[in-house]
Amino acid sequence: QVQLVESGGGLVQAGGSLRLSCAASGIIFSINGMGWYRQAPGKQRELVAFITSGGSTNYADSVKDRFTISRDNAKNTVYLQMGSLKPEDTAVYYCNVRARNDYWGQGTQVTVSS
């Protein structure tokens, strides 16, 4: 049974930092990449950051230079270090794992107050 366990969301003031984690288990095929998406109320889900098994990264323009994605391949865990947070970063953040199939976490709320 595939499980993606997310942690690290919460409430933070503008300018603050948070670190999200997502640990994947039960995936028997090779993981090609892991990443984070987010969805704010009334908006579509959007890519935040993604990292391939080889370490290549991709970021949304809105988070470049503020967020850093990393992964521990041995633990099948992906992290998102978020800094200089803004109210517009408020959203539910979803972990995504790409193997033979696409897998999604349950989402973790990030709220940035002004």
Describe this structure in words.
- The structure is a single chain.
- With 114 residues, the chain is mostly beta strands.
- 0% of the residues lie in helices and 55% in strands.
- The chain has no helices and eleven strands.
- It has strands at residues 3-7, 10-13, 18-25, 33-39, 46-52, 57-59, 67-72, 77-82, 91-98, 102-104, 108-113.
- The strands form two sheets. Strands 2, 4, 5, 6, 9, 10 and 11 form a seven-stranded mixed sheet that branches.
- The protein is globular and about 45 Å long.
- The mean pLDDT is 95.
Strand and helix map with partners:
Blueprint: E1 3-7, E2 10-13, E3 18-25, E4 33-39, E5 46-52, E6 57-59, E7 67-72, E8 77-82, E9 91-98, E10 102-104, E11 108-113
Parallel strand pairs: 2-11
Antiparallel strand pairs: 1-3, 3-8, 4-5, 4-9, 5-6, 7-8, 9-10, 9-11
